[in-house]
Amino acid sequence: GENVEQHPSTLSVQEGDSAVIKCTYSDSASNYFPWYKQELGKRPQLIIDIRSNVGEKKDQRIAVTLNKTAKHFSLHITETQPEDSAVYFCAATYGNQFYFGTGTSLTVIP
Amino acid sequence: GAGVSQSPSNKVTEKGKDVELRCDPISGHTALYWYRQSLGQGLEFLIYFQGNSAPDKSGLPSDRFSAERTGGSVSTLTIQRTQQEDSAVYLCASSSKGQRYEQYFGPGTRLTVT
After folding, report:
1. How many contacts (CB atoms, under 8 Å) link A and B?
2. Which of A43, A75, A90, B60 is 20 to 30 A off residue A36, Cα-Cα?
3. Do residues B23 and B91 make contact, with C-beta atoms less than 8 angstroms apart?
4. Which residues pair with B33 in a beta bridge?
5. How far apart are CA B103 and CA A98, in angstroms?
6. B45 vs A39, A81, A84, A97, B90, CA distance in Å?
7. d(Cα A108, Cα A110) in Å, to the nearest integer?
8. Is a pLDDT exceeding 50 seen at residue B99?
9. Contacts of residue A46 in chain B, CB cutoff 8 Å?
């Protein structure tokens, strides 16, 4: 089955700086890579996703890049704000079974 | 519209007791997932239902865990003879096959086994 690794487990940045979270996956058949944000005590919510036929996708301050050859994908948050503080999970999937990373706790320091 | 709902929101039970956790997916969503999230950990896949197909039970950690989905809608996750290591937040998610596979999560049930 698929194995997803996520780094770092914790990340602190100053407000306004950029944050980068990286994930690797093992199964080359995986073709969909979503990122979820989970605020403290709340449910995970999709923030951005990318499919294997695309190398990069951007949505305002958030972008995701995918390197299929190396089997890794990354989340980039620019101009971070305190409300970006949360746990972020990456996932990889083919078909309908999702494999999640262990999460990155991001703290944005005002 | 209404999102995914789960009940109860919190459940405290004694070791050895059985518990049932309920998930109401978004109406019309054919896919339903159960995950377990232990404190400070990621999401551990448990089971997946898609329409009337046989469920994918490959993530269930032991035979004490089982799940049903009646009428292609509501799902119940049952844990028999609960153990302390079963304490976690159990999350349910649904998605609409044929869309971009986005999963919509419920608020979770926090299970504490004493």
Report:
1. 54
2. B60
3. no
4. B48, B93
5. 10
6. 20, 31, 26, 8, 10
7. 6
8. no
9. 102-103
pLDDT band at A47 (very low <50, low <70, confident <90, very high): very high
Q: What is the pLDDT of residues B17-48, one digit of tens each?
A: 999 999 999 998 888 999 999 887 788 889 99
Q: Which of B31, B43, B101 sits opposite A89 (nearest CB)?
A: B43
| Cα A56–Cα A14–Cα A34 angle in degrees, nearest 5 | 30
Contacts of B96 in chain A (CB under 8 A): none
- Integer Cα distance of B67 and B27 in angstroms: 19
CB-based contact, A44 to chain B, within 8 Å: yes
Which residues does residue B110 pair with via DSSP β-bridges, in sequence order?
A: B10, B89
Tell the residue number behind the tokens 């994908």, with chain if given: A73
Tracing tokens 């976690």 back to the chain, one arrives at B88
